[in-house]
Design a protein that fits this description.
This protein is α/β, with parallel strands linked by helices and 213 residues long. It has eight helices and seven strands, in the order H-H-H-E-E-H-E-H-E-H-E-H-E-E-H. The termini are far apart.
C-alpha cells in the first residue's frame, strides 16, 4: 500500500474516533441546566409574615346558646385559609347570623390598595357590619406584605383558587365588594370604582342591606 494511502487511512480513523467521542448520547446524555431548572411558585406564608402583618382574627360565627343552624347561601361549603393564622375556616359558618361585607382584592391591584384603608376606617365604626377581605391571588406571602405596608389589619382569608369569585360568578375585575345578608344570601355585588372613604362604604352598606343595628 502506498505511503500516501496509509496516511489517509490513519487520518480517516482519527476523524471517525473523534466523531464518536463527541456524538450526543440521546437519553443518556447529561441534562442541561435549562432542562433541570425548576420555576419557583407562590409560597405559603410564614409565621413571621403573619406576625408582621398583625391581622385581626377571622370571624367564628355569631355566638348563641342554641345549636347553630346549617350554613346556607352560595358561600356554604367553601373552606378557606385565614390569613391571620393559616387555619382553615368554613366561610358561610363564620359569617352566619350577621350581615357582612366581603372585599375581593389582590396584592398587585392598585385600586384595591386605595380602597383597603377606607374599608378599615369603616370597620372601626360602631355601626359597621363585619368586613372580611378575600385575597384573590395565589401568593399569600405578598398579600400579607401588602397589608403590612398599607397598615391595614382587617381579618382576611386566602382564596388563591378563586372559589368565591367562581361561586358568585362575578366579573374578572378587582376590587369587588359583596354584601352578605345574615341568612347567607347575597344582597348585592358592588362592581364599581374603588370606595374613597368610610362614608361611601357606609352609604353602600345601608343601601344594600338596610339598617344593620
Amino acid at each position: 500500500m502506498p505511503a500516501a494511502w496509509r496516511w489517509a487511512f490513519v487520518v480517516l480513523i482519527a476523524v471517525v474516533a473523534l466523531a464518536v467521542a463527541v456524538w450526543p448520547r440521546g437519553e443518556h446524555s447529561t441534562p442541561s441546566v435549562t432542562a433541570t431548572a425548576v420555576q419557583g411558585g407562590p409560597q405559603a406564608a410564614s409565621d413571621g409574615q403573619r406576625a408582621a402583618a398583625a391581622l385581626a382574627a377571622c370571624p367564628t360565627g355569631e355566638p348563641s346558646t342554641e345549636p347553630p343552624a346549617p350554613a346556607s347561601g352560595p358561600l356554604a361549603g367553601i373552606t378557606l385559609e385565614c390569613l391571620a393564622d393559616g387555619r382553615p375556616m368554613d366561610l358561610a359558618a363564620a359569617l352566619a347570623g350577621r350581615p357582612a361585607l366581603l372585599n375581593l382584592w389582590a396584592y398587585w391591584c392598585e385600586p384595591c390598595a386605595r380602597e383597603l384603608p377606607a374599608l378599615q376606617q369603616y370597620a372601626a365604626r360602631a355601626d359597621a357590619v363585619p368586613v372580611l377581605t378575600v385575597h384573590s391571588s395565589p401568593d399569600e406571602g405578598k398579600a400579607l406584605a401588602r397589608l403590612r405596608d398599607l397598615g391595614v389589619h382587617l381579618p382576611g382569608v386566602q382564596d388563591g383558587d378563586g372559589k368565591v369569585r367562581a361561586v358568585l360568578n362575578v366579573p374578572p375585575v378587582l376590587p369587588i365588594s359583596v354584601l352578605v345578608r345574615a341568612d347567607g344570601s347575597i344582597a348585592k355585588v358592588l362592581v364599581q370604582r374603588p370606595f374613597e372613604s368610610a362614608d361611601d362604604i357606609a352609604a353602600a352598606v345601608t343601601a344594600g342591606l338596610g339598617a344593620t343595628s
